[in-house]
From TrEMBL:
Entry-linked InterPro entries: Glyas_Bleomycin-R_OHBP_Dase, Glyoxalase_6
Taxonomic placement: Bacteria, Bacillati, Actinomycetota, Actinomycetes, Kitasatosporales
PANTHER family hit by this protein: CONSERVED PROTEIN, HYPOTHETICAL FUSION PROTEIN
Organism: Streptomyces marokkonensis
Protein name: VOC family protein
Coiled coil: none
Domain Glyoxalase-like: from-to ranges: 9-122
Length: 128
């Protein structure tokens, strides 16, 4: 039996290209493949990192984080992104199109929402 390997995390969105563009700018990734309603991005050649794909889903409903009411669309996953300067990178993420989540459960981690509403966390090595 050959070993299996997780290759990509796929996020749904109303507009796959728009969300891919946000993460391209945020992470410094490059486009690896694209189709009309799907985009695969990853680290530049020779760099390590996890690939992300984005798929257009016309019926996409953004998650509510933290979930407050029964029936809210729950967060299914979130991305943890390691940074060197938490404040500067949070500010840059907001400038690129993210928004700071109202609820911040930790002082040394910043929870943000990408343009499609997916939560992601910025953190520094000192905070883990």
């Amino acid at each position: 039996m050959s070993p299996t390997k997780l290759s990509t995390v796929v996020l749904d969105a109303h507009d796959a290209r728009e969300l891919a563009g946000f993460y391209l700018r945020l992470l410094g990734y490059v486009v690896r493949a694209e189709e009309p309603h799907w985009v695969l991005i990853g680290p530049p050649p020779g760099s390590a990192g996890t690939s992300l794909a984005f798929e257009t889903e016309p019926a996409y409903v953004p998650p509510v984080w933290p979930d407050r009411n029964p029936g809210d669309q729950q967060m299914m996953l979130h991305l943890d992104i390691e940074v060197d300067d938490l404040a500067a990178e949070a500010e840059r993420a907001v400038a690129e199109g993210a928004r700071l989540a109202e609820y911040q459960p930790q002082n040394d981690v910043r929870v943000l929402l990408d343009p499609s509403g997916h939560p992601f966390c910025l953190w520094t090595r000192a905070s883990r």
